[in-house]
């Protein structure tokens, strides 16, 4: 896992309901005391739904539903070996 701070966008397209959710995030990965584990944190910078900024709404209602998927996406997207 590449250490440091990584940024990106996680995009959810729902063609049936005709909406797009774009989540800008900052993913931080650090050395852990234990070789098998990683210390990580993710910060949501901005959330757009069909281009409208709804970051506050995201934190109020969606964060707990999406955060695990976002962590998985960030891990996969930034897993290059240094």
Structure at a glance:
With 82 residues, the chain is α+β, with helices and mostly antiparallel strands.
Mean pLDDT: 85
How do the strands line up in the largest sheet?
Answer: 1-2-3-4
Order of helices and strands: EEEEH
Rg, alpha carbons: 14 Å
Question: Main beta sheet: strand number and arrangement?
Answer: 4 strands, antiparallel
Secondary structure: helix percent: 25-40%
Assembly form of the protein: single chain
Number of strands: 4
Low-pLDDT segments:
none
Query: Outline, from the CA principal axes?
Result: elongated
Estimated share of beta-strand residues: 35-45%
End-to-end distance = 7 Å
Total helical segments? 1
Class per helix and strand makeup: alpha+beta
Describe it for me?
- Helices cover 28% and strands 44% of the residues.
- With 82 residues, it is α+β, with helices and mostly antiparallel strands.
- The protein has a four-stranded antiparallel sheet, with helices on one face.
- Strand 3 (39-49) and strand 4 form a beta hairpin.
């Amino acid at each position: 896992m590449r250490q440091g701070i990584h940024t990106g966008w996680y995009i959810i397209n729902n063609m049936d309901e005709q909406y797009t959710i774009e989540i800008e995030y900052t993913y931080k990965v650090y050395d852990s005391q234990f070789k098998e584990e990683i210390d990580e944190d993710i910060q949501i910078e901005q959330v757009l739904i069909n281009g409208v900024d709804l970051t506050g709404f995201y934190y109020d209602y969606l964060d707990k539903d999406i955060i695990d998927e976002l962590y998985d996406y960030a891990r996969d997207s930034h897993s290059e070996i240094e």
